[in-house]
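Troubleshooting log. The previous run stalled partway through. Resubmitting the same two chains, unchanged.
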Amino acid sequence: MHPAPSVIFFTVFSGMGFGLLAFLGLGFPAVTGLLAFAMYTIGFGFAVGGLLASTFHLGNPKNALKAFSQWRTSWLSREAVLSVAALLMMAVFAIGAIFAGVHFTIVGIVGAALCIATVFSTSMIYAQLKTVPRWNHVTTPLLFLLLSVTGGALLAGQVSFALPMLIATGAVQALTWYLGDSRFAQRGSTIETATGLGMIGKTRQFEPPHTGGNYLLNEMVYVIGRKHSMRLRVIAITLMSPVPFALLLLPHNHIWAALAVLSHIIGVVASRWLFFAEAEHVVGLYYDKR
Amino acid sequence: MTELPTSTDRKLGLVIDLDTCVGCHACVVSCKGWNTENYGAPLSDQDAYGAAPQGTFLNRVHTYEVQPPEGAAQTVHFPKSCLHCDDAPCVTVCPTGASYKRSEDGIVLVNENDCIGCGLCAWACPYGARELDQAAGVMKKCTLCVDRIYNENLPEEDRVPACVRTCPAGARHFGDFADPESNVSQLSRERGGMDLMPELGTNPVNKYLPPRPKQTEEIDILAPFLTPVAEEPKGFLKWLDKALGGD
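Second attempt completed without errors. Output:
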């Protein structure tokens, strides 16, 4: 699948932003006043910035408001509804914390739950697609949720919580790759099932339907960079998990903490790039490509 | 509404005969012609006369080579457009309600006034039946020529999808699969109409008729009359043959 930068930034940053907002909503840390203002700015900045970035890949964004209407069937619509609900709920909580120095506990808990639900619905947009076997698995929401919580813990300065989460995230990331690599073959879709010609024999493309590219090939049969995937995987998982883990073990210092966050973000961006670039859509079978 | 209807009154769709299709791409051209001039945004092209032309098409013809366990390989031309699935995954993922399946005839359509161009429906479709138009930014797909089949301004024989009307080989058939006696139901029954990628559970309405098995090792009855006649040349030709070194 085509790794659109807007979607990579949206999923990485909104995930971390909602993770941070969830921690703040639960009172970890229970900040007030100016410090609260700074932390909520980061939380809302990441979450809203990510959501805005996601509109850049729309072909026709003027209809964006209509995306709130189909929550009964569409995970994308659910994500839109939940994200706005989460942001509004957390805005109420943030105003109380910043300007009145009070924490509306119930609002914070509900807001945190909505933040996590938003990240879950984001992950389900991908996990629901049977056409992309690599994504169509429980590890997709699991990894998205773990990354959100880990990123949130890092941004919220919850070091003792972040340490085990970093390890868990790295482990689930490795598991996701390991299981994902064989899933396309396991699901059994081949050029023979795609064309129905398997009943006659072995099938191959003789002539493509068009000599140039098209939307389908650009969007769903993106093969550029896959040959570097092994190296990128090592970079991604190292920066995402062990490097920030080691930095957090050093004597506490804001520079190490900031570097840990930075390293984690770069690792997650690389991982999210691979999430798209390595995902193979079954439509590629019609072109004898993966 | 992106909830799928539990059932549709009619199931309009196509039967595509892979035995008959000659791969002329006339259906591709007529589809583009009709649908760029009629319902919805035109089907745009980018860099049409440049080095890397691309464009939006609702129907494309692939060509495959199939190698049976025994005998010669076969070439199969394979037109592919929206299959108007009963369990259309493209419809339920749509966040705006722009994609829908009609309960009256089962046609899957996009309301372009509601489409945000997110592309998720194209991701959800296993068949590559949806293409996001790069000029209009909205999703385009086969409408089963909904603006022809009910159009009383057209002569009756033209009230079929453009691809069906134009096919010179008669490889495309349009009809109602809900009626067991319709042309398409009968064809599908008799010729073993098949679903594409049935493992994905989309329940396509359109059916593909597999190529008929090719006869092998059976020589035409006229073949003996075509055996080469190679008699020894005489006279001048014999001399010429010798002079040219033929032996």
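Takeaways: Chain B has one domain: 12-209. Chain B touches chain A through 70 residues (CB under 8 Å).
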